[in-house]
Design a protein that fits this description.
Layout (H helix, E strand, L loop, with lengths): L4 E8 L4 H9 L1 H5 L5 E5 L2 E6 L2 E11 L3 E7 L5 E12 L6 E9 L4 H19 L3
Length: 130
């Protein structure tokens, strides 16, 4: 069985870090751009797209800065894979960007990156930062 490979992407976003954090850390915020629907029960999140459903556990977060979700197997045990959303703010220019860490199989990395580009495009529309 092949192993997924970690990759990172960075996107500039015209938004305050505080507002952006609301959209990456709350079920209602994530439902507006990341998935069709997001439910949470404590530290467990369910991401719903069309007919598919994926579960993740909130692995860590730092208010206003980053959030990390660890994917779960069907039996709710943790996998080795996660996705993390980090907000970076340039100290001098105050430019804001979002850095995404995710995993994909080698042959799916290009498609996975394209999916993130589309998701971030949706996020920019929701934020009015197009």
């Amino acid at each position: 069985m092949s192993v997924k490979v970690k990759y990172e992407l960075e996107f500039p976003i015209q938004s305050s870090p505080q507002l952006l954090y609301q959209y990456i850390s709350t079920p209602s915020g994530l439902s507006e751009w990341f998935a069709d629907n997001v439910n949470s029960r404590g530290e467990f999140f369910t991401f719903i797209w069309d007919d598919s459903e994926e579960k993740a556990k909130l692995a860590s977060k730092k208010s206003g800065e980053r959030i990390k979700f660890k994917w779960l197997n069907d039996d709710d045990t943790e996998t080795d894979y996660f996705f993390e959303l980090k907000i970076m703010e340039d100290e001098i220019t105050k430019d804001v960007s979002i850095v995404i860490a995710d995993f994909a199989y080698e042959e799916e990395i290009a498609a996975s990156k394209l999916l993130w580009e589309n998701q971030i495009s949706d996020l920019k529309h929701v934020l009015g930062s197009v």
